[in-house]
Structures are given as C-alpha cells and as structure tokens.
Write a structure and sequence with these properties.
Chain A: It comes from Pseudoroseicyclus tamaricis. The complex is a heterodimer of chains A (about 375) and B (about 350). With about 375 residues, chain A is of the alpha/beta class. Chain A is built from twelve helices and twelve strands. In chain A, a hairpin with a 2-residue loop joins strand 9 and strand 10. The relative contact order of chain A is 0.15. Helices cover about 30% and strands about 20% of the residues of chain B. Classes of the chains: A alpha/beta (about 375), B alpha/beta (about 350).
C-alpha cells in the first residue's frame, strides 16, 4: 500500500520540471512589545526576504549558525507560523496566506522531521499511536488498514515490528528519530522539512539516519529541505546548498561548486572553520577566523548584514545592502564583490542553469 | 611528551561504578593513561563511552553515592588523588587542575557577576586580596580575548554571548595557573566560527602558559586539529591510543576505523554513501568479560565473545585493545589481512 500510494520517483532536478517549492520574498518578523500599553517597538527579523526554489526529488541544504533564521525559515515554509510577507508555492498551490483551516487540506503534502526526537514525541503515546495519529487526522482508512500501514512504515524506517506497543522512552535517540521519520512519512508527503534531524545524535548514529533519509528519498521520490549547521553532513546529502546569515540567504549554489569555491566571504569563513578529521590537512588549512559575534536580528547593521564581521569589507558595504547576484552555473551570491552576469531580473530564469549543473552533480 | 620526563598525571587502572536501582553501571573500566607536561591529550568517544566520567572521577567531581570511584590510582605530582581527603582535593581542584565544562550557560552562576566568579578561585586558592584578585581577573579576561575587560567584570553571565561565556569559563579555569586543564566538550555547544575562535585561543594559551590539557570531545575534526595524542574510548574502556597523526593514518581498532569512516568531511573526497556502525553501544551493567565492541564489529570471531582483549602495544607509541593486534594470535587469524 505504501508503494502504491507513493508518487512515482521524480528524476532529481529534471530540466523544465516546475519547482515543487517556490519561495519568494519570505519574511518572518516577530514583533517586540514593550511599555505599559504593550506597543510594538520593533521586530526580530528572523527571516528577512528569502527566495529559493526546490525541484522535485532534490535536497536543498540550508546551513547557517544558530540564530541565523534557518529553522524559522523551515517552519515558516510549512506555515507553522503566520508569515509576515512573501509567497510560498508548494506543488503549484499558493499557501503563503491561506487560513489554518484551508491549510489542513494541504498538510499531507508537506511534513516535518524535528531536531529533538525526545521532545517531538508524546511520551504518553506508544509508537503505533504516534505513527497512526496523522492517519487518524487525515485519512478515512479502517482501523485494520491503519494498523497495517503503521507496520509498513515501521519496516520502511527500520524499526522492529515487535516494538509497536513500546513507548518513546524505551528507545535510543537514533531509534526515536526513526519514529519521527515514520510519522512524517505516514501521509505520503512530497516534501519534508528536516530540521537538524541528526544534531542530537552520536556520530555513528548520524550516519545511519542520513542513509535512511537518502534511501527513503529514492524509494518514495521525496523532496527535502535539510536544515543543518553541520556543513560536512550537508555536503553529503544536499543537491544544492543555501547559506543563511542573519535572516538572509547570502549564497546559494550547487553543492560541488559551493564547497570547491565558496564565493561569499561568510561562506568562505564558515567552510574554513569546519574542523577537518585529518590531522595533516587540519594543520595546513588556512583558517579565516571571524571576529566578534553575530549581530542581533532585532537590530541588523546598516548596509550588508555581514559588514560588521567581514574580512573583505568595503565602504559600500556599510551603505548599501547587496542584492543577490546571479552568476553562471546556477549560483547566486549577495555580495558587492561580485557583478551580476544576468541582464534579466526574472529570478526563475536565473535559476535555470542550476538544474543542469545540479543534475550533473547527482547523476552517476 | 619528551622521553624520560615524568608525566604530570598518571592514571592507573581506574574504575568507576554507579550503584543505581537498575543495577550497578560500570561506567569506567580499568582505564590507564598518562599526560605529559605541556601535552594535549584528546579523548574521543560517543555518549556513554565513559570519557567525561573518567575525568570527573579523577578529581572527585562525582557525587558519592551513587558513584564509587576505585580501585585505581591517580598520581598527580607525588600524591594519589584518590587517597587524599576532600579538603586537600579541593585545593587541587580549581587550583592545580582547572576544569572547563561543555555548557557555559549552566556552569556559570547566573546570580554572580563574572568578576566575582573569576575572583573566587584567586581568593580561595591563592589568598589574593579583593583588589589584587580584581586586577588579576582583568588580566585573565584580556588573556582570553574579552574586550573592555575591566568594565565587563561587573556584568552577569547572561550579558555575554555563548562564545564569550566559554572564554569566561576558560579564564576561571586558568585563574590559578593550573598544571593541567581538563576541557570537557568545551566547544560542542558553540557554532563553528566561534569554535574556531576558541580553538585558536586554546593553542595560543598553551604556547604561552605551557600547561597540559585533556580535551574531551566526540568531534574527530577538533581532535585532528589540536591534539598531540589521542585516546579512543568505548564502553568505559580505552580501546585505542596513539599519537594523532598515527591514529588517523593507521587506525587499528575496528571501532576507530569505523568511526573515522562515518564522518563526512568538507574538503576531501565525498563518499557516495556513509559508512555506518550498526547496532547500539553496550549497556554496562556488568564489568566487561569480553570485547565490548564484539556485537558491532565486522571482524569479531569466537574469541572476542569469551575474552577481554588487553591493550596490545603496536609500533609508534600506539596500542589497541583488539585481538587483531595480538602478536601471539596473528598467524591464526585470517582477518588480520583486512584489518
């Protein structure tokens, strides 16, 4: 039943296929209230104008440090928040400003795997009940059919069927994350936001979960937004990678290009800061050590968001906020160091070269 | 460590057991290691491998009950830290041995200013006056790279960012010029760019102050960048130990080999599929009587299920607790070739 209901596996980033997810100008501002009358005195600009697309079958890695807005971005896309501004089209449907009631109909298409498998599973429900809950909410299956589906899902994520009546506390972190993944798969979604799904796990268990996510993607034709601060794991799983800093995407490029030649000074610093598990290499790599901390998203600096820490800062950076530049190879970078090579301002056209190179990156 | 020089710290057959209602948990089993002067010893292992408990045992930071530390010896200078009384141990702790914990938010006291918290060990261990302690606190904050140090003495921990708080923790640990600094996952809670700052700071401080450091982490990348020697722990035991270049170039224990393969990287080759270590770490309800990695080991054979491998010495100051490295068994085992 699982297989029958699953969509046909999509060719990763096929040319010409419309994007499964199209995010334009997404803003998510959280108001700050203060004073006796609780007037709004400002806003935390957690996500401040983000554009990207994800093609069917693709994995977009979204990386950045804590507080850069990557998790908020993932949650806003699934409309777990009421977004401030922007458009989100998923599978051809504009969901950016739908009411929560109207959204319910579209929920089965898009699911989420959370970071903390301990906190995202109800401790009073057993595994079977947890995986069954979305089926109870969204399908009209009979009880027997649901039981069968739960067991199939447990097989799919590598959980022993005999554990169906056990409670989350009886499982290890990696197994709990498998329960969360089974729950996300229950409604045959097309798109899954994985919000730091491996951050709470040990290294040997991380690899198991990442391999499982890759297998499921192939089996069910899933599309992922993979949010992580682990740049090496994103390099492994993502087709394209977006780097966020202080609510903005500063660079977006196919995986190979981004890791081989990062363009934005922030991406360069971030990649050079990742400790390399090879002592010969680790002591040779020239690190760009950034000074200071990330500014507050409630009060971002004037001009470029990164101008306070950028090692290549210029006068213009303190004045003008750089718009994303579109470069050959489907890359985009928001930095004054680069010139836009496209005359067109149509953002979808700018993404076009991305598919071909992304496809080269994944095809055997 | 220069040959012949006595180690600063010499840990001999240390064991720690927790007595719990679910049974006795043998968290640390017969751990041996030495720390040379000015050396950085990396301790790697997954959660529950006993790496933190080992270090907390040797300076008496575990509450007893439930923990029972011993048997074993922890030779520091001319004393055995497991034999001296609590009062003498308190003098060592925070004085000659400094400690940096993982989470700088929970290990700093939120109701005292940073200045008071740095001054506390100075006044306690070194008997400095209030004024002298404050001056030394400013020096320390400057040493760990906190700008505008004198003014920030009056700030509370919540007024510092995560990276800055960890710098404060390091300043406290360094306050009394420790001979040994034990750092328990000091950068795990931090972002990579902040982690890079702290790692650079630690290297600078080591050169400047010449202390020996024990660095506990699960991140092989961090270890590769800073350690002189590495000790790999699994199931409360040391399974492999070697100089850092030797360990990464020539891992001999199947667990170390698997661990190195599971970690993806950002600069080298990209693997098509990640190697996993199937199964779960052992539950330590009994002292080990056989190899603790046997159930997850691709090379395990009958002997691994009935005997506990010793740490067999290998060339290059290297040893591994695996029968594949037992010179006496080598010819009989066909697996030796692919190990």
């Amino acid at each position: 039943m699982l297989d029958a209901a699953a969509p046909a596996p999509a060719t990763p980033a096929a040319d010409g296929a419309p994007p499964l997810l199209d995010v334009r100008g997404l803003k998510m501002h959280f108001p700050i209230h203060s004073g006796l009358l609780r007037r709004q005195v400002g806003a935390v600009k957690a996500v401040d104008g983000v554009d990207f697309t994800i093609r069917p079958g693709e994995t977009l890695g979204l990386v950045g440090e804590s507080g850069c807005g990557k998790s908020t971005c993932g949650r806003a896309i699934l409309r777990l928040y009421d977004i401030t501004e922007g458009s989100i089209r998923i599978d051809g449907v504009e969901i950016g400003h739908l009411s929560q009631h109207a959204l319910r109909k579209h929920r089965p298409t898009m699911q989420m795997v959370f970071q903390d498998p301990q906190a995202s599973l109800n401790p009073r429900m057993n595994v079977s009940q947890i995986i069954r809950e979305p089926l109870d909410e969204h399908t009209k299956l009979s009880s027997a059919e649901k039981d069968e589906k739960v067991l199939e899902l447990m097989d799919a994520v590598g959980l022993n069927r005999a554990f169906a009546r056990r409670f989350p506390h009886a499982f290890s972190g990696g197994q709990r994350q498998r329960i969360g993944i089974a729950r996300a798969l229950a409604l045959n979604p097309k798109f899954i936001v994985c919000d730091e799904p491996i951050a709470a796990l040990d290294v040997s268990i991380q690899a198991q979960v990442v391999n499982l996510l890759e297998d499921l993607q192939e089996q069910f034709g899933l599309t992922y937004l993979f949010i992580s601060h682990d740049l090496s794991m994103v390099r492994h799983i993502a087709t394209r990678v977006a780097v966020m800093y202080l609510g903005r995407i500063v660079e977006l490029a196919p995986r190979e290009a981004l890791y081989a030649e990062p363009l934005h000074p922030y991406t360069q610093a971030l990649l050079s800061a990742v400790p390399e598990p090879d002592p010969a290499l680790a002591r040779k790599v020239e690190r760009v050590i950034l000074k200071g901390d990330v500014p507050s998203p409630a009060n971002p600096p004037k001009g470029c968001n990164f101008c306070t820490r950028c090692p290549k800062v210029m006068d213009i950076c303190h004045e003008i906020d750089p718009m994303p530049r579109h470069l050959p190879g489907g890359r985009q970078v928001a930095c004054h160091l680069y010139e836009d090579t496209k005359t067109t301002t149509d953002p979808t056209a700018a993404h076009k070269p991305g598919h071909s190179s992304a496809q080269q990156g994944v095809s055997p | 460590m220069p040959k012949g020089a006595p180690p600063v710290l010499d840990v001999r057959s240390l064991s720690t057991v927790f007595h719990t209602r679910a049974g006795n948990v043998h968290a640390v089993n017969d751990v041996n290691f030495t720390l040379g002067a000015g050396e950085l010893l990396g301790v790697v292992g997954e959660s529950g491998s006993g790496k933190s408990v080992t270090m907390m045992s040797l300076i008496g930071l575990l509450p007893s009950p439930p923990a029972v530390v011993g048997p074993g010896e922890v030779i520091f200078g001319d004393r055995d830290l497991l034999k001296i009384d609590e009062k003498a141990l308190r003098e060592v702790r925070g004085g000659e041995i400094g400690f940096v914990f993982q989470d700088p938010m929970t290990s700093l006291n939120p109701v005292f200013t940073v200045g008071m918290q740095i001054a506390e060990p100075l006044r306690r261990h070194m008997g400095l006056s209030k004024k002298a302690a404050a001056d030394r606190a400013v020096e320390l904050l400057e040493l760990v790279g906190i700008p505008d140090a004198r003014r920030r003495l009056g700030d509370y921990p919540h007024q510092f960012s995560g990276g800055m708080r960890q710098r404060v923790m390091i300043a406290i640990a360094l306050a009394c010029d420790p001979k040994v600094l034990i750092a328990d996952e000091p950068t795990t809670a931090l972002d990579v760019t902040i982690q890079a700052q702290i790692l650079e700071l630690m290297q600078e401080l080591r050169e400047k102050l010449g202390m020996a450091v024990i660095w506990i982490t699960h991140d092989l990348g961090v270890i590769a960048g800073i350690a002189d020697r590495v000790m790999v722990m699994y199931g409360g035991q040391v399974v492999e130990h070697a100089p850092v270049h030797e360990l990464f170039a020539n891992p001999r224990h199947p667990y170390t080999q698997a661990l190195l393969k599971t970690v993806p990287n950002v600069h080298g080759e990209r693997a098509k599929r990640l190697t996993t270590i199937e199964g779960q770490p052992p539950i330590l309800l009994a002292p080990p009587s056989a190899c603790s990695f046997r159930d997850r080991c691709p090379h395990a054979w009958e002997l691994c299920h009935r005997a506990l491998p010793a740490r067999f010495p290998l060339p290059g100051d290297h040893d591994a607790a695996c029968f594949l490295c037992d010179p006496g068994l080598a010819p009989t085992s066909p697996e030796i070739q692919d190990a």
